[in-house]
Amino acid sequence: MKAVEVPVQNHDFVSGLLDFITRSPTPFHAVAVMVERLLQAGFTRLQESDAWMLEQGGLCGRFFITRNDSSIIAFRLTGPLTEHGIHMVGAHTDSPCLRVKPNPVLAAGKYLQLGVEVYGGALLNPWFDRDLSLAGRVSFIDADNHIAHRLIDWHKAIAVIPSLAIHLDREVNDKRSINRQTDLPPVLMRQDGGMAEDGTAFHALLLARVNEEMPDDLPAAARILDYELSFYDMQAPAVVGLQDDFIAAARLDNLLSCYTGLMALIADEHGHNALLVCNDHEEVGSMSAAGAQGNFLKSVLSRLCGSDEAMARMMATSMMMSVDNAHAVHPNFADRHDQNHGPVINEGPVIKVNANQRYATNSETGAMFRQWCAAAGVPVQSFVVRSDMACGSTIGPITASELGVRTVDVGVPTWAMHSIRELAGCQDAYNLYRVLLHYFAN
Predict the structure, then answer these.
(1) Which Enzyme Commission number(s) are listed (predicted)?
(2) Sign of the CA dihedral 384, 388, 393, 396?
(3) Span 244-260, pLDDT tens digits
(4) Which of 20, 40, 305, 352 is deepest in the core (most CB within 10 A)?
(5) How far apart are CA 293 and CA 92, in angstroms?
């Protein structure tokens, strides 16, 4: 197994991760940042609509492709795919959040509020009393009468969901429940004159923001057509703990895996054939053109192989590592874990196992991951959900069944998963990066 040089200190890696999360409030922004890093590293952008002039059999090079601006595949080819296969890493760009509705304006009373949908399995209590901003993709007609799209981000706290005072709800600490329709609309501002509930005034706010962020060399936006906007917490990611043990941030699930996979792919130019896929919509079931149940990855691999025969031969020698955060044992709720399978933060990445195939790991792929961890000098842990509790899932089983590829489900131990602010270990993030370097290289 080829040795791989890695940085001695994880400080720079963790700092880069925090910056990536800060710049990625939505899946669209995360993909945009990844595209920027790939271009800087010398990767070539491909378009799905173009003919790919890639020579089959002796293909070499570094490329990437996006779909819906929210999913991305990047790959490095160093030798024949049918002979050597390809080592793949899968992650997802989306996280639970509050999405703005198409006709969102709630103009009752003296305040402007926006109606929201809960995206994914969000932990809702932590969304109250936070400084919220708004970001996403806006589609519009420009001054040349063309449909165009733009990413926007207010970059400041523009909204809040205030809690009801305990004096008006004396049982809140014992019996609190949240009505998603009536309790969650954020407050944006006081208004005296009122705002039309048909959304025209909100579109005017969006139009102004789009044009503020529009480069001078592009036509101005003239009329808003549609949008996908999400509220997010303005509190910056941070390293916390008395000994700087932890990373506290929004969207660690699963931007931590996206960043780790990206940096490992970029770091080594001459290892094994390697691919990173980061899909959108994992948190809502992956059933979309940009999700893992769509044909994005299969389509790209089929085009690289050139025939069904070549595709089948490549899959037989390939591997998929589904990288998604795992549940660390919570010191206040240790009884929620199987007593023999309670991952501890900063004691290594976790192999996730489920007999009912909610995770795709089997004994063969688990053994291979343990071998890569040993080669990287990284400890490894196991997670199995309690037998009397339901188990979550990942893109691992979806990809394994769609492609017929050997798959292992792994991730770093995390607290407060799906909260507005999650917690993971600094050393775990760095150790996962070290393992992925070995995986991509061999």
Answers:
(1) 3.4.11.-
(2) positive
(3) 999 999 999 999 999 99
(4) 352
(5) 12
